Amino acid sequence: MTNALSTNIIQVRDLIKSYGSVPAIKGLTFEIGKGQVVGFLGPNGAGKSTTMKILTGYLQPTSGTVKILGIDVTENSIEARHHIGYLPENNPLYEEMMVMEYLEFVAQMRQIPKSKRRMMIDKAIHACGLEPAVRKDIAVLSKGYCQRVGLAQAIVHDPQLLILDEPTSGLDPNQIIEIRSLIKKLGEEKTVLMSTHILSEAQSTCSRILIINDGKLVADDTPLQLTQQEGGSIYVVVASNKKIQLSKTEVSRQLASIFGVTKVESIDEYKDAGVAMIVSYDKQDPRSDIFQKVVSLDWILLEMRRKEITLEETFRRLTKE
């Protein structure tokens, strides 16, 4: 039975999976609470799909424990699956079926009582925006609508957890936006664990990011923290208050003396007789100190814009060999 005291939807402890002598997962440990949309990122071969298959009961771990709502997926796989909706990367659909026919088949396989079946199917159709396609054969649907059908089959039994493996793979930009919006809407009611190679998608859709590399967890934080913790750079334009041209060397020296600044670069750009610089910093945002420094020198601050480290840059740093 479900552990009523469990506050986590997913609980992974010391998870290890080996294929023969080759380790794919090397001691993963993490928890995911209720109501989170979590991005699961990593380079090819990092172990994302293997982890998802273990979570959904399709693979057995070599060692470690995985629990869904307090249910051990190794000991009680069938019970755990009742609480999971799964959309694998290669969305397996019966193309010869109509959408309604396919969802009725899935509902039967999910053992939804006949008295509730139509209501649950209609709810999934509405949630996934499938009304225009319910009487069409799956074979004639666009890739975007096929993904909607895949999401509908994943939620038709009203699970608390959705596990989505590359849900926007192969979609065009418009379809990606539509499916991304749909996932965010589903995330308002359910916990979502989503793997993706599109980092901008994870940044805009997810409230939390897990990054794995070589079978190990290397990052677990919000998208904002992952783009701030390694600092960034600031575009600064200053000018003299005495109608004279400032020296680039002097401006660079003064800005470089500010705590936390790691590098100052002059750029060949002038604005209202100002000197433009790119100021790099590590962890502490120095904009307040830059402002104070400019005021103390009786200079004019014409412009100041911060450019944070991107999620792509953080991902590359954490996963490079």
SSE topology string: EEEHEEHEHHHEHEHEEHEHEEHEH
Helix content: 25-40%
Average per-residue pLDDT, rounded, comes to 90
Principal-axis shape equals elongated
Work out the oligomeric state of the chains in this entry.
single chain
- The end-to-end distance, rounded to whole angstroms, is 43 Å
| CATH architecture descriptor of the largest domain | 3-Layer(aba) Sandwich
What order do the strands of the largest sheet run in, or round the barrel if closed? Answer: 6-7-8-3-9-10
**Biggest β-sheet: count, sense, barrel?**
6 strands, mixed
CATH level 3 topology of the largest domain: Rossmann fold
- Which residues sit in consecutive blocks of at least 5 with pLDDT less than 50? 1-6
Provide the gyration radius in Å: 25 Å
- State the total count of DSSP E strands: 14
Specify the structural class. Answer: alpha/beta
Written account of the structure:
The chain is of the alpha/beta class and 321 residues long. The chain has 2 domains: 8-227, P-loop containing nucleotide triphosphate hydrolases (Rossmann fold), CATH 3.40.50; 229-314, Alpha-Beta Plaits (2-Layer Sandwich), CATH 3.30.70. It has 11 helices and 14 strands. It has a 6-stranded mixed sheet, sandwiched between helices. Strands 2-1-4-5 form a 4-stranded antiparallel sheet. β12 and β13 form a beta hairpin. The longest helix is centred in the middle third of the chain and has 14 residues, at 114-127. It is elongated and about 85 Å long. It starts with 7 loop residues before the first strand and ends with a helix. Residues 1-6 have low confidence and may be disordered.
